[in-house]
Design brief:
By secondary structure, the protein is of the alpha+beta class. It is 31% helix and 23% strand.
C-alpha cells in the first residue's frame, strides 16, 4: 500500500552474507538510511573476508565482526543525516546473517527479525522496541488482529540511537534447516504459525516460498514494505 519502498536487501551467496534493513524517516530518508546501512555493513564484511584469507578461522571473527559491521553502518547513516536537513532523524533496522562452517551468525538491531525453521519455527532475534510487546493485540485491517500486538517504538536503530548495542546470535545448523530474515511488513500481517505453514508447504522451492509469503502478507493488508530472505541448508 505504500508508494515507496524503504526496505533494502542484499544477498551474496558466494560469501554467504545476507542483509536486510527497514528504513525510518519521512519523505525518502528511510530509503536512504536502509540502503546506506546494508551497503556499509556488507562492504565491511566483504573486505574483511577478502583480506583475512586463511586467517578467516580466527576466534571471534563472526560475532565481533558483525558488531563492527553494524557500528560502521550506524555511524555512516548518522553522519549522512547530519549533512542534509531532509535526512535529519533517518535510521533503519538491520539484520545481517553470515553462514560459515555449518553455523549461522546473526547481527541485529531494530524490529526486523531472524527465524529458524527446524521442527517448527523459532524466532531467534528479539525486537528492540521501547515497550516490547503490548498486552492487547492491535486491530488490523478487515478485523484481523496483529499476531503479537507489536509496539513499533524502537529502543534503538541504526543511525538514530546515540550509542548502538547490536545483538549477536550463533546457531549450529543442521541439514534441512531453513533460515528466514524478514522485515516487519511480513510479521505484522502473518502469525509465526502462518509463516511456518507456507515455508513447510514450499520448502523445496525457496523462491516460491518467499513469493507466497509476500503474497499472503499483501492479501492481509500489506500495510508496510515486505522483504523476505530464505536460506535452506
Amino acid at each position: 500500500m505504500r508508494p515507496n519502498n524503504e526496505d533494502s536487501v542484499l544477498v551474496d551467496e558466494s560469501n554467504a552474507i545476507f542483509l536486510l534493513a527497514d528504513g525510518l524517516g519521512g519523505h525518502q530518508a528511510g530509503e536512504v538510511a536502509s540502503e546506506l546501512a546494508v551497503k556499509e555493513a556488507y562492504a565491511y564484511l566483504k573486505d574483511l573476508i577478502e583480506r583475512a584469507g586463511a586467517s578467516r578461522e580466527s576466534p571471534g571473527f563472526p560475532t565481533d565482526s558483525l558488531k563492527e559491521a553494524v557500528s560502521k553502518a550506524h555511524y555512516t547513516v548518522k553522519e549522512r543525516a547530519g549533512t542534509d536537513p531532509h535526512l535529519t532523524g533517518m535510521g533503519a533496522t538491520l539484520e545481517i546473517m553470515l553462514i560459515k562452517n555449518n553455523s549461522a551468525y546473526i547481527g541485529h538491531v531494530g524490529d526486523s527479525r531472524a527465524y529458524i525453521m527446524r521442527d517448527g519455527i523459532k524466532q531467534i532475534t528479539r525486537d528492540h522496541t521501547a515497550e516490547g510487546y503490548l498486552s492487547v493485540p492491535a486491530v488490523m485491517p478487515r478485523g484481523r488482529r496483529a499476531p503479537a500486538g507489536r509496539s513499533h517504538m524502537l529502543a534503538q536503530a541504526v543511525g538514530t540511537s546515540r550509542v548502538i548495542h547490536p545483538d549477536t546470535h550463533h546457531i549450529n545448523l543442521q541439514a534441512g534447516d531453513i533460515m528466514l530474515l524478514c522485515t516487519d511488513g511480513l510479521t505484522d500481517m502473518l502469525a509465526d504459525e502462518e509463516i511456518a505453514g507456507f515455508i513447510s508447504m514450499y520448502r523445496d522451492d525457496m523462491d516460491h516460498a518467499a513469493a507466497q509469503l509476500i503474497h499472503a502478507a499483501n492479501t492481509q493488508g500489506g500495510l508496510d514494505n515486505i522483504t523476505v530472505v530464505l536460506v535452506k541448508v
